Batch of 4 targets.
Target 1
Amino acid sequence: MSSIKLYPPKPEKVYFYGTCLVDMFYPDAGMAGIQLLEKQGIEVIFPQDQTCCGQPAYTSGYHDQAREVAAAQLGLFPGDYPIVLPSGSCAGMMREHYPELFAGHPEEAKAKEVAGRIYELTEFLMHVCHIKLEDKGEPIKVAMHTSCSARREMGLGEVGPALLGQLDNVELVEQARVKECCGFGGAFSVRHPEISEAMVTDKVEAIDATGANTLISSDCGCMMNITGAAEHMKKEFKGEHIASFLWRRCHES
Amino acid sequence: MSHNQPEKTAQSGVKEFHPRVHEAINNPQIRANFRKAMDGLMDKRQAAFPSDDELQGLRDLVAAIRLRALSKLPELLEKLEENLTANGVKVHWAENGDQACQIILDICQQKNAKSVIKGKSMVSEEMELNHYLEKHGIEALESDLGEYIVQLAEETPSHIIMPAIHKNTDEISDLMHDKTGTKKSRDVEYLTAEARQQLRKRFEKADVGVSGVNFAVAETGTLCLVENEGNGRLTTTVPPVHIAVTGIEKVVENLEDVAPLLSLLTRSATGQHITTYFNMISSPRKEGELDGPEEVHLVLVDSGRSNIYQDDELLDTLRCIRCGACMNHCPVYTRIGGHAYGYTYPGPIGKILMPHLAGLDDAKDLPSASSLCGACGEVCPVRIPIPKLLVRLREESVAGDSDHNNSSVKGRGSKRSTSESLIWKGWAKMHKSGGLYRTGTGAATVFRFLMPNKIGAWTKCRTAPKLAPSTLHQQVKARGKNGGEK
Ligand code: SF4
């Protein structure tokens, strides 16, 4: 359950936690996130020793291994600045699950302290930075998929659409069953490939039916899943992380 | 096309999970029937809760009621027995399904019963009561319309509230035509009226009525039964003997607890503000009364529930009031339907309950068959943290001797494999060191770590993700600022 979050005033510095998927597959989304934060006058610190939040091991039931990796992340943020992640599912892991994962362990207090500083990028831009976006791009029709973690664990279902709503030339269309999971779920997708396939296929069809030519997501996991399936199904629409999209529309066009 | 349910159901696991999923997912009729039904049920639930504030407040209240009942479970069960006994209801305790079946059989035999009529009861499905009675020469007839259809088809329920939801009207019409000689028709009212006629005669000659229980009220010794068809009332009042059967977790403390529970149960389940019938049974027929059974029994079944009760986290499983909302909203259930799970309770509640009832070794594929999307937890009226419990059961599945030492989950560790635990150890070693990670990211993708030989499962319906030419770590470093720790 997402707890009601009281947002602090805009800080001078933040830590940026890129997440392993962004690191390896979508570094541009990470760079765009950093640049969006810098445009808000914030100094962004990227700890080079960051790796992975531990979620893959955690959801697979390997909690000792998840803890080992998570414990190493806890030491990366010595200053008391907010920690910003361009992913709802990794942010959900660190905010919602770290305290449980470390309950009864020596790092418990630290885990809670870090969890209290975790923000998903779009949440941070909207609720802490109160970002004002100025759209410089051509008219475009987009659809958005919000990850289940961002929507349900973090309670951020409205944030992505609200940010896109600030862009004058962007028409956001809503696919049928917009809240339904895209079927990735980490190891679920390879342990139960047929179920995952049925889910992502339905998701791609629903997005395609809107006529949008870009799918925006704030989670690279969902995006990789949906665009991978869309490509396989020879659909026209492309995927773009919301950070790249916002940066491109407002600062590069 | 009808879904072929293997003769033997539930716990025995005739077929493995994956072949069942394969069969269901490739059956367009099953897919269409469930999608349509679940969409309808989701809309109805949504419409029944116009105010989200009210809904969330009610969920808090009702979760607290269930939690309070569970926190005093042993005490409340004793009180329930005491008050029911004082009311003239006979209480029986069964450690498992077989014992419960035996108790019911004994009562039937004492009464020389030949025919039993049944109201809907998932616990009786769980213990395969019909099968047991029939083996001993007693006919057991389901009187809930959905259960009646499922029984005609020699299947098991595919949903805990709507047992025949996997069938559309045409399939039901064909089935009734074949088995009972009704005319083929798409007129639901006609079909219902026919079934009603057929059932009505059976009520008159039934020797014993067997029903479930939705809430058992400890303070007053009252058994509450929620239903829409009136078959529950007939089952519990027409035959001379009524036997109610339920799990030990169904107890609530007092009558005041029932109103909010009922309101949330019916709205979550079918979007109804109240069901057509709500029965409160507190005693057999009293002197001078003109109707009602001469004897009322309650069979309280454990079947692994007290084992769940031992664990502070897993205990939440027992809060369930069997509304079915979790399956109505589940993207997995919607696609594979109820039978593919292979157990009495399908969907999210089945995934967290069956591993205890059947053992994790038996129900080994259930906890992982979820994307952890959280749709179930979001709608659960009693706020069971279903995704969290799934993760816990995954942990139990792969647990070695050292983790969760006190856990007594049946069949724990049964999914543990040396190769997989080695993979995760390697993953941890690499990801707990920033240096090792940076040198390895190019070569070792998360996917290779996840399932080294199963990337094929990913690319069957997706193009493979492409590694970026340089990582974010490298790009930040190349920029020359903010890459260091401060
Ligand atoms: S787990 Fe919750 S949503 Fe599912 S049947 Fe039980 S009470 Fe209903």
Note: Chain B has a mean pLDDT of 90.
Target 2
Amino acid sequence: MSESMNQPIHDPILSIKNLTVVYKDTLFSLKKSRFSRPAVDGVSLDVPHRGTIGIVGESGCGKSTIAKSILMMTEPCGGEILFNGTGLDSWRRNRLAYYSKVQMIWQDPFSSINPKMRIQEIISRPLHNFFHLSSDEIAQRLHATIRKVGLTEDHLVMYPHELSGGGRQRVTIARALISEPILLIADEPTSALDVSIQAQILNLLKELKQDMALSMVFISHNISVVEFLCDSICVMYMGRIVESAPREVLVKDHRHWYTTLLFESLPNGPRPKERKFKVDLGELAVCEKGCSFAPRCIRAEKLCFESSPDLVEIGPDHFCACHFHA
Amino acid sequence: MKIDRKIDRKIKKYINNKKFLIGSCMLLVMVVLSLFAPLITGYGYDETFVGPALEPPSKDYWFGTDRLGRDMFTRVIYGTRISLISALTITSICFAIGVLLGLLAGYYGGVIDMFVMRVVDIFFSLPWVLIGLLVVVIRGPGLLSVVISLSLAYFPSFTRITRSVVLSVREQDFVIAARLTGESNANIIFRYILPNCFSALIVQASIIMSFAILGEAALSYLGYGIRPPEPSWGVLLQQSTNYMWDNSYLVILPGLFIVFTVLSFNFMGDGLRDLLDPRYKRAYE
Ligand SMILES: Nc1ncnc2c1ncn2[C@@H]1O[C@H](COP(=O)(O)OP(=O)(O)O)[C@@H](O)[C@H]1O
Ligand SMILES: [Mg+2]
């Protein structure tokens, strides 16, 4: 712990460069990766120290794969990831140190905690594994942490099934934060929760981010959730970043048609007057050569099916991968 | 307060399950009989000519007497001791070996899985009588031979069940999350995976208990197992076969004890299977 305090913190704290991940199908794998296209294709992004980056996109676009790569749970096929200025290849040799600084919150609070462990054990296990602390110190930090996430002492002796979804998600947040990490990956932490609880958890994360000086990668399929929490937002489609910008810019001046679609898909989002919807064969229609979004895009022209647009800077910190971004 | 009520509800759930209740009561009768055997009967199990030989059941000799005038009731309830103890030993050994191998095979997969499962398949494919015969040829008859041969015969079922449960538990998020909290492989296996396998294993353990009782009786009957004068149920049956046409009580009564005990474990197993099945819980709670 003290070691991480003394170490100078590198800015950006996390830097992903040209990450590419391809899932290789084994003979018996249940999840067949369609078309054997990469799940993540040349993604680059930087997470500034104490900043929050949002990744948004429909399910299957590779968001979780990025999270898994950051946490060294998949082997990347290309590109590199630097944490605090050091490549993951070096961190691989010292996983405990890495995981004490980089932690994750999961989508499903029902499957991500051990049903046969008491809450206090679930939350304090990281301390036992990462640090050599006396039982007093562990108890002290346990109590401090549960107070931070809004659990009470009564919860400590319970088993997970006695808690609601929101309560369980607080447990996973406490488990992730008890080792005082500097980077938190949140993979759709609210999508399995009731709407009323979602807001509580989002507010909690926002508070904790401030209090604990966290840097965060926040993943969601819901652009309004990302908008609430993040300083800048990356929109992903089929394994690629199609648009990224600081939050205000992305909300007011998004240029990619897919970003527009994401905003329009919100329950109280903007409604276009005439809905010229391309038939949503999006999943099936894959354009091999050109822009992968072209089959679903109303602006698509011949060019879009022939060449894939690069991610180009079209404004300060505003990147867009569209031939017709203007 | 709250916890008390929760435990209450749990106990009620078990009592409401008729099969489990009947099975455990039957088992309790057997355990009490075997524990308090010296208090229940005044005779020794090996005391000859406590009465006339081959006396049918009567007020003094509830199950009659055998050819040496030994009290059959005494011998049968002392036999309960041997049966329950050997069944418990066999099941525990099977559980320990079988579950450990299943955890290793399921968790590590690959070559370890391949090797362990082929060894298990070999024992699975051998009939238990054959295994018993082999062990007896090697190290002579006796209780230890029974325990060794039945343990070898029955541990594969634990390995298979454990492995299949581990394969599904291993993929759950909480196991992956455990790795991120810095848990070692041993901790993941014993703190995260094993506790989630128990419900399937408890049911299997009760089934293996009944198999072990039958197996011990059969091996002892064949003369591979417990030797006279120890009054195992198998020994009692074997010693009575010559007289069974005229003195049928000599085989019927020990036989009923075997049936009763095996049934008690089967009922308990059936009840536990329902009680530990999460779908059942949802439907009946
Ligand atoms: N373990 C896996 N094996 C093979 N393909 C996978 C695996 N996990 C994910 N995929 C595929 O990779 C793509 C991206 O998945 P994922 O990163 O989980 O998307 P998201 O989190 O955005 O919903 C999907 O097409 C999915 O089918
Ligand atoms: Mg996902």
Note: The interface with chain A takes residues 172-174, 176-184, 191-192, 195-196 of chain B (CB under 8 Å).
Target 3
Amino acid sequence: MLTFVVRRLLYSIPVLLIASVLVFFFVRETTDPLARLKGSGNRDLTLIQRETHRLGLDKPLTTQYGRWLKDFVRFKWGDSLVSGRRVSTDIRDKLRNTLQLIFWGIVASAIIAIAIGVYSAVRQYSALDYTFTGLSFVGLSMPPFWFGLIAIQLLIFVPKETFHLQHPLLYSVGIHSATNHGTLDYVRHLILPVATLSVQLVAGWSRYQRASMLDVMSADYIRTARAKGVPRRVVLFKHALRNALIPLTTIMAIDIGSLFGGLIITETIFGWPGMGKLFFDAINNGDTNVLLPWLMVTAGFIVVFNLLADLLYGVLDPRIRLA
Amino acid sequence: MADEDLPISPTRPRPPSGRGDLILTVEDLHVSFPAEQGVVKAVDGVSFEVCENEVLGVVGESGSGKTVTALAMLGLLPRTAKLSGSVRFRDQELLNLEEKELRLVRGAEIAMVFQDALAALNPVYKVGSQIGEAIKVHHPEIRRHELRERVVGLLDLVGIPNPADRADQYPHEYSGGMRQRAMIAMAICNDPDVLIADEPTTALDVTIQAQVLEVMERIQDRTSSAIILITHDLGVVAGLADRVLVMYAGRPAELGDVETLFYRSEHPYTLGLLASLPRLDQDEPDVRLHRIKGQPPSLVFVPPGCPFHPRCDFARLPEPCATQIPELRSLDDPSHVAACHFSEEVREKKPEDLRPVVGS
Ligand SMILES: Nc1ncnc2c1ncn2[C@@H]1O[C@H](COP(=O)(O)OP(=O)(O)OP(=O)(O)O)[C@@H](O)[C@H]1O
Ligand code: SF4
Ligand SMILES: [Mg+2]
């Protein structure tokens, strides 16, 4: 197990190196760090030249890459070209906020999707199963930003106006209110962004869980368990569910990796001060000093999530030997 | 008749004083499944009885409805299955029992060893804990260390080496023969009155087969359980069974004591099965094995009349074999029945008569 983890971490080094090359050249090709300076009507060519030289932009791209990588691995990420704040501090703070969103998003999506999937499989072709099927297609085909906007409308503005509430039940901006840092306040801020982030995950995972549960329920060992006289509930949850979760973990790992895309939209809509918003702003401002570490940290997270998924896979399925 | 006329001699003496108490009666069992082309009649009017201490062999080609018959008795068929008839265990009718009550019978009073042990064991739980669960479900009060002892003892009984270590392994770490033995241990753990063993040896190579059969014999000697032994190997039946039910296309073809059935088959299908057995006791190079011609029939479009008629050497066509369904009937011994219009004629033949002779 430990050797597995160490080996996987070592394997991830070349992966991250390749990612760094791609990220660096892609960002350099598309984003000019001096765009703001040049676009601001500043015709002072010596200033532009000075800045170009200071940032090393006059060197060959490969030299720039080498220099950047050296600084990056030594955590010298520099300052934001826009705000002037230290990038490492910024990313650390935003990452903390984003991880809350991701954590609750995954937990909520997994629990809801598994519950729906199991129910739909056990009560296959029931009215509720058809309802869930229909809803999951709606969920899969609905853009998250649209869901977020509709949710804000229906869950915040409509109740507020109908019942003349002073405060809305749920909040649509930020992590907590200016004056209130309580848990309930946090939850009221958390629900809408987490829901927005989760819609597609729940829709996809619940379909998958339903199929895998149906598959497992017709397995021979389920019949063996019943032949032993094991009660139905135990057959379902101990024998069937445990096996049905194994394939789901793979899908979850893949989906969590691509979660960062949805994050940008969600955080922008809900003013959530996280990585998504940081990225959005950095793109708008051409802030390469933020973009590069941001992309690398994200890549690192995807690697870690995949590792976690593989570990979980190994725990759930004794046939997989982690070595 | 002399012993050497038997392909494989039934060596085990049967209980001398006839049969024990009747414990299981299956009467006119029908099972069908809806399918795309029509209705699959997997079991079509099967009846038999099993007594204490008795071993009933159920024989037939692949697809003849052996497994479905067994599953029907325990209510383990998928919901799509349509069932009729009666399965009486002692005084209880099992076919219309609620799932809750049936649960108390399963594993405790009637237990089953499944055909494919690798698929039949849950891959994510240790073998020991799967056997332990079977005990615990019917004895919730049992202490942990006692349960552990019982499990290890059972694994030892079925001949698994290092049972204490093996109990903590997963099914994929077992060999095929050991998995099958673990299945047997799981089935006998509550000392059931009826043990159904569905082809316990089919997937195994010959030496392992012999070892598993030895385990079956040992179990048979130690308990008074009735055993229903499903197989398509008449050799296995000859070694273990007291009575034999031969099934063809979901229907009973012949039912009788093992010796009677082997010496004086009244059904051409049984005779064909016997003639296709290799004989180890004789070595006549000029005698080849018989092959029953043709294929097992579709269970959706069962041939009219006698379902065996397209493959039967004795058939008279079209009348009566292709038009009238032969009923099970007995000639002189009431415990021996066969479903053939020409039983009297078949009885006079021996398996050898079906074997092709080289050069002829
Ligand atoms: N769930 C099911 N749905 C539809 N048809 C089924 C189902 N289960 C079994 N059958 C059919 O019933 C018939 C009898 O099957 P069964 O498994 O009892 O055969 P068997 O005698 O045990 O054969 P084998 O020696 O291969 O195990 C087969 O034709 C099979 O296709
Ligand atoms: S009834 Fe006719 S076809 Fe059927 S087994 Fe007897 S002889 Fe053969
Ligand atoms: Mg079978």
Note: Chain B touches chain A through 30 residues (CB under 8 Å).
Target 4
Amino acid sequence: MTRNGILVDYQYCTGCYSCEVACQAEHELPLEQWGVKVMQNGPWPIKDENGEPTDRYVYDFIPAFTKICDLCADRLEKGKKPSCVFHCQAKCMKFGPVDELVGDLADKPQQYLWVPPCA
Amino acid sequence: MGEQVLESKNRDDIGTSKEENQFNFGAGERPEMQDWKHPGEWQYMEDGMLVTRTSVWSAPGCHEGCGVLVYSDPETGRFIKVEGDPDDPYNRGALCPRCLAFKQVEFHPDRILHPMKRIGERGENKWQRITWDEALETCYKEFRRISMTYGGESIHCLRGTARDNQWQVGRLANTFNSPNEYGFLSGTACYLPRLSLMIMTYGGMLIADFSQFSALRYNDPEWQCPECTIVWGCNPTISNPDFFMGHWVTDAMKLGCKLISVEPRVTWLAAHADIHLMLRPGTDTALALGMAKVIIDEDLYDHDFVERWCYGFDEFAARAQELSLDEVEKMTWVPKDKIIAAARLFANSHPANIVWGLAVDMQSQGTPCAAAIAALWTITGNLDIPGGMCYTAAPMGVDQPSAGAWGYYDLLSEEQQKKRVGWHEYPMYRYGLTQAMPDMCLEEMEQGKVKGVWIQTSNGIACMSCETERWYKAMKKPEFIAACDIFMTPTIQSSADIVMPVQTWAEKHSVRAHYYFLSAITGGCATEGEAKSDCEINRELAQYFDHDEEFKKAIGRPLDQNAWPWQTEDEVYDEIVKPSGFTFHELMENGPVYQKYIYKKYEKGLMRPDGKPGFNTPTGRVELYSTLFQNFGYDPLPYIEEPGIGPVSTPDLYEKYPLIMITGARTTSFFHSEHRQIPYLRQLTPDPWVQINPKTAAEHNINEGDWVWIENHRGRCRQRARVTYEVGEHEIAAQHGWWFPEQDGAEPNLYGFRQSNINQLLANKPGATGFGADLKCTLCKIYRCSEEDL
Ligand code: SF4
Ligand code: SF4
Ligand code: SF4
């Protein structure tokens, strides 16, 4: 069986939370339970060599998948993309076989590959 | 180029016709269709579920009108789930959390399901179920009596923001013989300052071109990706503002578009911009003129375009050039070298465009500010070119719903049109939407001149109203108030006598006609309870008036003129979409229809009613120096003025209230005051938050999550501290639109609408043109709530 995963280009993740709610709605999850949860880093100013804040900031969102994510197995059966990937507003997530996604991983920085336990 | 003679005209004789008020070009004429068709069926079965393709341009949701696929039970018709429509060119499958959580709206236990009448005092929360006939007949009798006793203008019709029911509310007002339709927002400070400025000086309305005019989107060979975009006073990836999907900006960034952010906060986009101009709130005009100065001084402007198509460039240039960049730096707090760098990057990029937002409107300077920013894209030659700033169309020739003026020019006598509140005092209100002037309406309501009110999906006291208490009290005065909504709101609870249930977008038929394409809202799901669409409610109510000869005689409407001469709501939509050549049902089946978009229309004689080249303005050119402004007695050029309250204009207040208060920062969880009762969405933002810089928070002994009072000379409210570098040390950013559907709805609590209502700190004080108000640039102080406050 091919092992599937999700490649996230978090350079463009804007923190819109569509993935969180897409997953909850798809699986009718209870509140405060997520297949994917968006983590926030920043904003905070990058400091210069003297420790003074500059006007450049780190501000990233990263969708973090949890172990209850089953890569939307039911949808996959019907030939559909996972709900979070499909509805992502920044279109910054890609679903596919891990070996293919590994190739894409080399194309640009600021990406990561998620492979759930069920895969 | 065609020109009109203005000089000889009296101020009250200008801007009186629909032709002068061109909202979208091409209204009424069927344009050539783009060679594209939605590949899917409008309805089909999948997995035992019925799938219906529709568009979400109706409450609850937002402005966008995203294309969706609704899954329902084929037996019961009830909603099951919604997915984005991957073949819809507008959103291409993506959805924001609000539509994704929609099931919790559809089946929410708090939905209003039947018409009800009040049986206690206003605000007592005592309602009794009645029939539709009783509800509509009561409305008819009351509005008839009021219109015939006090004049149609004494009935005010309120609506929320521009969605499908925008024109429906206006047309119903006109049916009552009232010209007065509006929302509670001071200075109509939401798009209207920009909109009316563009209509008066550009002869139409412009928006940044991210390929959305074409169904082929980024693959359209004619489209060019902007080399640079300025996101100005807008957080589009979060707000999905006014018919603009925010993530078109990230799409363009992926294609190499450079980003300049004009934004007092460090939003995600600002942090990812090539240049971030972190300006002091409310000083946008100075910044725009400063950038124009650099572009002109360094000769980076498009001489050919300016000479051929602009009126008053020399005067505009002189206005910009008299500024010193040191002064601009001092005013805006933006370092001069950054202003220069941004001006150069923008002017040297081609095409380039500007995604501007509400911050432009939400200052009393809204109008001159819009003029100054618009001049930047104009003098750099980015007008109506691929990837530049393009004129919005009347999609497939369909104009009425978008303009909201369907009825105003044809159902009201000229005399009655001029009774629109503010018509005489604020002539700019004749351009753009035909709305009444809210600040003056408030005064009329306080004086008891407003006798009847119709509220249609508008939660004014919890959302738009500044000096909330004034609006709240004023709304107790009218003799009769009827409301239509999906949920009970503080506004309806405190003031209405009759309330009627409205269908959600998944249940209703309607039309989505705005800017780029024409599509049908096809419903598809069974209706919960007895709800009806906004249009159908209004149509049914209008029948009483159309059959009432005595009423028609009294208001001077010809006996053979019917305001709603349609037997069903679908017939109304047939009438609306008629210019497109489709019937409503054909449109439902066909899916979104795009016309062939034509760039540089001003060269081709497509912008003016007389068919001559040029723009639909008095001089036939883009008026950098506005002849209409001159005629109306306003400064014809953009000028700089400090916000009414701030560190410079009111230093004494600044001493007491040392923080600049930005309001209205969006989250994806809510659309204005909507969605507070939706669990998946409320979970994302459980409490109202106010962003405070870590340094400021430390100085005030405030920790993350603390409830804090935000206070100024007008009032106070409490929100929870979110300690973050997203906002600077000199500002805070507070949320708007909060009420608590889970709390007691009866007076005096009214769902706690005062507790966190930031508008209590804001004034009803419009700018000189009647447009714009200082809503995102006032002053406040903050302090921690004590135990007993909570
Ligand atoms: S792949 Fe499916 S199950 Fe996993 S997080 Fe996304 S939506 Fe949830
Ligand atoms: S939907 Fe996409 S852009 Fe939005 S938070 Fe999730 S990963 Fe980020
Ligand atoms: S609420 Fe979100 S998904 Fe729905 S129409 Fe608006 S932007 Fe689109």
Note: Residues 2 and 97 of chain A are 6 Å apart (CA to CA).
